[in-house]
Amino acid sequence: MAKKKVQFMCTAFRDGFQSVFGARVFTPDFLPAVAAARDAGIRWFEAGGGARFQSLYFYCNEDAFDMMDAFRETAGPDANLQTLARGVNVVGLDSQSSDIVKLHAELFKKHGMTTIRNFDALNDVNNLIYSGKCIVEAGLKHQVCVTLMELPPGCSGAHDADFYTATLQQILKANIPFDAICFKDASGTAVPSKVYDTIRQARKILPADTFIHFHTHETAGVSVLANKAALDAGADAIDLSMAPCSGGTCQPDILVMWHALRGSDFELDVDVEKVREAEEVFKDCMSDYFLPPEATAVEPLIPWSPMPGGALTANTQMLRDNNIMEKYPEIIMAMSDVVRKGGFGTSVTPVSQFYFQQAFNNVMFGPWKKIAEPYGKMVLGYFGKTPVPPDAGVVELAREQLELEPTTRPVLELNDEDPNKGIPAAKKMLEDEGLETTDENVFIAAACKEKGIRFLKGEAETGVRKVDKTQASQPATAAPQQGPAEYVVSVNGEDVFMAFEGNMVTVDGKVYRVGIKPQAGGGAAAKSDASAAEVTEVKSQMPGAVFKQLVKKGDRVRAGEAILILEAMKMEMEVASPVDGQVSEISVGVGDQVATGQTLAKITV
Prior knowledge:
Elements: E1 4-10, H1 15-21, H2 27-39, E2 44-49, H3 51-60, H4 64-75, E3 80-85, H5 98-110, E4 115-118, H6 126-137, E5 141-147, H7 161-173, E6 180-184, H8 192-205, E7 212-215, H9 223-233, E8 237-240, H10 254-260, E9 266-268, H11 272-285, H12 309-321, H13 328-341, H14 351-365, H15 373-379, H16 392-402, H17 411-417, H18 423-432, H19 439-456, E10 465-467, E11 475-477, E12 485-491, E13 494-501, E14 504-507, E15 510-513, H20 529-534, E16 535-539, E17 544-549, E18 556-557, E19 562-568, E20 571-576, E21 581-586, E22 593-594, E23 599-604
Parallel strand pairs: 1-8, 1-9, 2-3, 3-4, 4-5, 5-6, 6-7, 7-8
Antiparallel strand pairs: 10-11, 12-13, 13-14, 14-15, 16-23, 17-19, 17-22, 18-21, 19-20, 21-23
């Protein structure tokens, strides 16, 4: 009996980059690996979208449309280049208006893409209807998604095979045009038996020739088994990656899956020897990038969060940027409660980021003391309907803190009424800065907002982590104050490894919390009682980067008035003056990294 040839999409250059390097990779560095994969016979690539859109403007100082053009030129005219879209959120964390959703599809077609995989993290089919229509009308293939995950232990409701089948039936009932169905498990936590049951049920209600694709990650350690379950149930294709962006937080490696299928009824449609050669080229391309240790390992605790591979390293990169990587285990544990009370949206971008932001706030400020705006808007209904009702107490906290009422109105309807969204609003942003209002610039402004404008003005910063090979193992980065400083120190003739990050020092594998304070009774840092009485210091309550300065020296401010905006974990947080007075000093500038407790400004009372 002939073996069934298994088709696969190579995710190394999109999801792989997001899952290992937080999507921060320069285009010229990886194109030789694309060429090598092409020469190995691979013709189906994930080539952009998702986090690999915003990240190019936020961290790489590159244009995502230029990247897509270069990818198409390298992969060749016949390659199927696929991108990732988030329904009405398209390629951002915020949702968009109808005109921007349509522009997204048209521009991705213009810049060489073939297929768009389109999902909604809440499995709210209303968010897929118009976006799917735009993709097809633009001349692209549409791969519509049902998003999967396993609920944290002890939870029930939604996220079982019957729920996924019901979502699929809603897609069919809505007459959404599609070329393929994808079951997308971004956290890699859906148990293989549930994957099997879901796809078996889907096969029963779909036309016989429907193309079914399955996507997962290795983060929880079950991806190979889940892929095999999907194939046994009738899936036509799976997602695989290439080293060094495979395994761990990524998809399983092409070579690993090839090996796992040996002796079965399936075989990968690939020349494994040529893939081996391509992987060596890829490893060489990425050899000077900082490889986060958490990206290479299975994490047994992930089912308790669940944190998707694509978000895990993006967030740990930001924790490193802010010198608080030691908070990571606490945040992962806090995510479980956040998911339980948030309505069971699938832990995939943007919802996974909302979960992480709220877990971050719960760790930094105390449980449920500060509602992260995106999480709050989600439980209030501003991103669509959650699979189950969110916790009533959390909804009330969000209503009070955000001063927003819950809504059940369609997301596109709300956004189309919002004067701050859409093509006219984006054009105004560009015109105010004297920038061209091309379609590409309009979309960049709409999707990336102020950071997109900074890029277009030539003011973008670079934050890509690379290893400085001239200084042994010390990581280097294009942005200041990122990553641990690592040294080998000779103590009494013996070498001791030490790594400094924030207020933590690792000495031969043991972690210690350290601090430096002025000598009691005086010193340069001491202030007189008179000085303290006259001047109030505005201190940072959390680490982050200065995103915007709202006042200048000499301005009068009132207590509670915002004077700065900090950005951390993709959240913008206002820093308010604690008193009425006059701004006597602004101690930081836009782009500066600040630590908890650092003085940001001084107010003279």
